[in-house]
Amino acid sequence: MCRTLSLFLILSTSLIFGQFGPVQIAFESDVAYPSKTLAGDVDGDGLVDPITYSLVGGYTYGTQLTWYRNLGTGAFAPKQVMFTGNIANNASVLIRDMDDDGDGDLVIDGSWYSNDGTGAVALVGAFSPNGGAALLLEDLDGDGDIDDLVRTANGVTILLNNGFGTFSEGAALGPTGTNTTLSASYADVNGDGLADLIIGGDNAQVGWYANLGSGTYGPQQVIIDLVSPTKTFCGDVDGDGDADVIGFGLPGGTVWFANNGLGAFSIGDTIPYGYPQVIADVDGDGDVDFSVTSGTSCDVKILLNDNGASWTIVNVEMVSGYNLVGTSYSIGDLNGDGRMDLLASSGMDIAGWFENLGNGTIGARKRFCQTMAGGYDLSGADIDLDGDLDLVTASYYGDWVSWYANNGDGTFGRQQIVVEDRDKVSVSRTADLNYDGLPDIITNVASCAIIWNNNGGSSWTVGTLPDLGSSRCEVDLDADGDLDLIGTGSWYENNGSGDFTVHAAIELALTGDVKAGDMNGDGAIDLVIGGTIVLSDGVGIFTTVPGGISLDEFALGDLDGDMDVDILEYRYGYLVGYYNNGVGNMTSDTLSTTPPGMPRTLILEDINGDSYLDAIWALSNGYTHQTYYNLNLGNGQLSGNSLIDPTAESAAAMIYADLNNDAVPDLVTVRFRSISWQQNHFYDAYRLRGSVFLDFDVDAMLDPTDQKVPYQLVKTDANNILVWTNSFGDYDLPADTGTWNVWTTHPPIYAVTNNPDTLSATLTNALPIAADLDFGLAPSATADTSIDLSITTGGAWSCNREVGIWLDLRNTGTFIPQNGYIDVEILGTITVDDLYPAPDSTSGDHYYWNIDSLGWFQHFAIGIAVTLGPIGSSSSLTATFNAGNMTTPVFTNTGGFIGTCAYDPNDKLVTPQGYGPAGAVPVDIDWLEYTIRFQNTGTDTAFTVVLLDSLDLDVDPNSLDIISASHSLTHIQVDADHVAQFRFQQILLPDSNVNELASHGYIKYRIKPNEGSPHLTEITNTAAIYFDLNEPVITNTTLNTLVDCNLFTASVTDLGGSVLEANASESYQWFMNGAIVTDATEQQFTATEKGMYTVQATSEYGCVAVSDPYQVIITHITDHDQLGVTVTPNPFNTRTRLDFNEVLTKDHMIEVIDVSGRTLRTLQGNGTSALILERGELSVGLYMVRISKAEKLLSAVSVAVE
To answer: Rounded to 5 degrees, what are φ and ψ at 936?
Structure first.
């Protein structure tokens, strides 16, 4: 897809040292500039195998022969090397079974190399005792092995093979006489079923010799006008079924001699061509044809024969390439159909074969090896949806588009051809045009304008555009959320499903590369076509900005950091910047002078993480091919040229993409015959690395039987950055040059086995990384039975939606529970869809998992998929862990939940949530527990998820404790600015359109507030969630307020008239004599009865306080049954007398109540009108004596004890 520029800040890190690493090969052609091709049965299986020359050793022209085992029906195995050495350009190279062991040996001029049956050869030596071999290499004596002819000083002699590759001279042929050169053919000339010898060259033996059988040959038979010097060849020129003779180098040129079938020859005609590499019936019409030397082109041409009557040069394949060696030919029956097929190769990295269709025609080129054949374009996409970035290329000379599956670590599988026979294909961009989740391929060839990905790269469908055009750029031109296509003079509107409607637009008829970006800042995507800015209104109306210039290689991006889209051009000798004033008006400035060379490609990417776009470019100058970068200085200026790859081999296109899944994009280049990539080390720094492990044998050595421990804090004196071991128990600390100490802060119930318990390392420029700084842990003598059981939901309990629940059991102590089980109870309007692992048993709403034992630091995870009912549905989940050797089970629950139909899938939670909007929690709270939940709601798999969590300065980062995570954490750190980083590298999180349930994830941790934090300290927390290099999703902000409730009190003020008022608070509850007064919940309260009144006040932070009692004495009792009472003495010390105006019976109750409203003593009437009250246990103070009957208050009086 042509890149639509969006401006955003990429997560950066401090840089200490940076560069690009050595060249790594993602794909390389099987052969390098294949100048020749051969055919022969290398492995002795009866099938003809192709063999190619390959250049080795740079331009020193060493030769490697590689062969490809024929699997039958035109399929071939991967390449195998047969020979490496120097072969002269004019050497004769053949495959023949010289030792009669069934496999093809290698013959180079007069020497042969024995094949061990696997294609590996070893030099035997010259096979002719006296040299001068004709290299006919046929069975001349009928004994089943390969013989030859040899030229002597005055004749020709048969060279006989003993069957094991040892040769000796046999009988002489023909008359004696001078023999300067020798050529020979072997064919049945006289129709007797025996192959005869035809000799040519500059010698006295020119003619043909009848095969008499048993290795004997008749006398010389002269062919009239076949004179020395000549090269001869036998083949059926006139299609009459016998072997005619072709003479090359005769005074009349190339002449063929017609055979009457009995060995009598007459001149047929001249042939308008010299000696070819191949003479064979390559089109299956019964007569021989010639291959045609292509000169410096790489075309495949055949001189087609029409029974000797006419000869016509036919272009079998046109290749738009220039190469000094031209095209080389060979023949062999590669598909086993009995017809000789044509093999061809050229220096344009092309080696293949053309099927003889047997009806006078030749088929299109097929491949027997993998070659790049002029890589021209490159893109990266997850073609097979396995979570890593695959590569797609267009081969300009090979005429094919292919893709390469990433193994996940930057190594790649074999080339997979998507389409071929597409002349001059030079574009292979990728984009999901029909929104099925599969990246499709866009090319510049109308017959395959779109190649639809059907099933993760295993099958493809070729598509065309409505007007048989092609796309020059893919961009959401009409802002409807799908990608439209930019053609030439038109654009193609996507309906969202990959169906396109063509719209004419003359403004788009400009020639040149097309790039997309918002050039005038109006929010609509505009185009730059060859240097001319074409503005779009977002609905398909275009306006050309006058004054456009012609640009060479160019890229769009914000060069000067002013948040608009600028242009960088790479022209011969210069990098030129065109700066946008924000509305599309550009001013230029030369930014750098480049070495001489033709610009090949240019991209703008932030390669060093400073948020400024840097330039990466490639040039070619003769045999010099190089790539460079220039760093952006942040003000629109560029640094000097920095060489990346001095041997970039015609780099045609580059992308900046993460191939090895380390979350750092790498530089990937498609070259003439390979794809290379270089790791980006700009993000590397000096590192201190190691592990924390359970040291079972207490030897302070990380042994294979030891167990690495996750989530352990490791520190260094190199800086103030804190890191924790990741899910695999490994840590990675940034540092600088120098000698540094490293130590681990471990749980107090464990001890470090290293002595000393601090490790040190020295980092230098030469040795920037210190590894194996490992710390062993062993439990202390104190037994600790700490077990954590946590439950996390993958989002809100949403109505009619499947929700994932993670349950994580973790042993955080030094005790090992045995014979345990987890009991999960799920209640409510809820459907359980899946449980993994499957429970060991179930009973009603209970699900049980058996756990034999849970070792130190080990955990057991359960995933539960449930679906809640419609809105308003309720549910709950509880979990219990118990073990046979535990006295108290571990219990946790989710509480009760009501389903909602709206939620944010990326959020931040805190536990406890706290009281009220301030999130009030006790000032001395031990832990705050945070959960960050995330969901990939994009349109493709997320390779890496990074959470940046801004920790409040009022929490202690050293106390951070990871509780659980949905996926493996690869890096955990907190920097000096209190920013915690949780990295899930290679998480392969699917998008919600593909797998809703699996698209969620989370991290849960707890952390302590700073010790001694004052009252009303506010602790806030916000996280940023990065899915790969997309803009971050910012979560909600959590808030907790540390509250010291000891500072909150309640008080009562008497406003008069029996009206009491509490101090200002959030809520109130009044009490009389210790009992709740119903509906008394306001700040003011009117007492209607005598009594001791208190108020319970709750502050805005949830603090609760009870006031001191306040006595209310109501002297007038309105009831007609009023009881009069006098107290003598009052105050009193020992006892006092209460006199009443009527007799008290046993139904009268007399209560003594203190100022807190507590009843201290209860008495009954004694049948008199007087009662003695003893002091007894009453302390000095004020009391109330209350008299009631049948729960009706009759009277109350205050008494004082002195």
So the answer is: -85, 100
For residue 290, what are the β-bridge partners? 279, 303
Contact, 1112 vs 1057, CB < 8 A?
no
Both tokens of 693, joined, read: 């492990």
Which has the minimum average pLDDT: 869-873, 999-1003, 1133-1137, 1180-1184?
869-873
**Helix (DSSP H) and strand (DSSP E) numbers for the chain:** 0, 104
Distance of CA 741 to CAs 245, 404, 688, Å? Answer: 88, 45, 9
Q: Which helix H or strand E contains 719, and what residues bound it?
A: none
pLDDT in the model for residue 1189: 87
Find all residues with CB under 8 Å of 644, minimum gap 6, and list them: 20, 616, 626, 627, 628, 629, 667, 678
What tokens appear for 592 in the block?
């750098």
- Asked if the peptide bond before residue 175 counts as cis, ω within 30 degrees of 0, the response is no
d(CA 452, CA 553) in angstroms, rounded, equals 29
3 state SS for 213-274: ECCEECCCECCCCCCCCEEEEEECCCCCCCCEEEEEEECCEEEEEEECCCCCEEEEEEECCC
Cα angle 222, 225, 228; round to 5:
80
Q: Which H helix or E strand runs over 561?
A: none
The residues facing 760 across adjacent strands are 741
Cα dihedral value 1154, 1157, 1159, 1163, nearest 10: 80
Q: pLDDT tens digits for 623-658? A: 899 999 999 988 889 999 989 998 888 899 999 999
Would the pLDDT of 763 be above 50? Answer: yes
* Nearest in space to 920 (alpha carbons), one of 650, 686, 1163, 1102: 1102
Q: Which residues pair with 475 in a beta bridge?
A: 484
- Per the CB < 8 A criterion, the answer to whether 1052 and 1061 are in contact is yes
526-553 pLDDT, tens digit each:
999 999 999 999 888 999 999 888 999 9
DSSP letter string over 570-621? EETTEEEEEEE-SSS-EEEEEEEE--SSEEEEEEEE-SSSSSS-EEEEEEEE
Cis peptide leading into residue 596 (ω within 30°): no
CA-to-CA distance for 577 and 528, rounded, in angstroms?
A: 14
Cα separation of 51 and 932, whole Å? 60
**DSSP conformation class of 325:** T
Alpha-carbon gap, residue 334 to 366, rounded angstroms = 11
CB neighbour list of residue 107: distance below 8 Å, 6 or more residues apart: 92, 93, 94, 95, 96, 98, 113, 127, 135, 137
pLDDT in tens, 1150-1201: 998 887 678 889 888 888 989 999 988 888 888 888 888 887 888 888 888 8
Cis? peptide before 756, omega within 30° of 0? yes
Q: Which of 108, 104, 67 is nearest to 87 (CA)?
A: 108
Q: What is the CA radius of gyration of the chain?
A: 46
Nearest to 518 by CA among 531, 503, 504, 535: 535
Say which range, 147-151, 229-233, 295-299, 1063-1067, has the weakest mean pLDDT: 295-299
For the chain, give the longest Cα–Cα distance: 173
Secondary structure (3-state) at 3: coil
- As a whole number, mean pLDDT of residues 1043-1072 equals 91
**Tokens representing residue 966 in the block:** 């949905």
List beta partners, residue 1080: none
For residue 448, give the nearest of 409, 488, 512, 402 by alpha carbon. 402
**What's the pLDDT tens digit per position in 1103-1142?**
999 999 998 876 443 333 468 888 888 888 889 999 888 9
C-alpha dihedral sign at 544, 548, 553, 555: negative
Whole-number pLDDT of residue 685: 67
3-state secondary structure 508-550: HHCCCCEEEECCCCCCCCEEEECCEEEEECCCCCEEECCCCCC
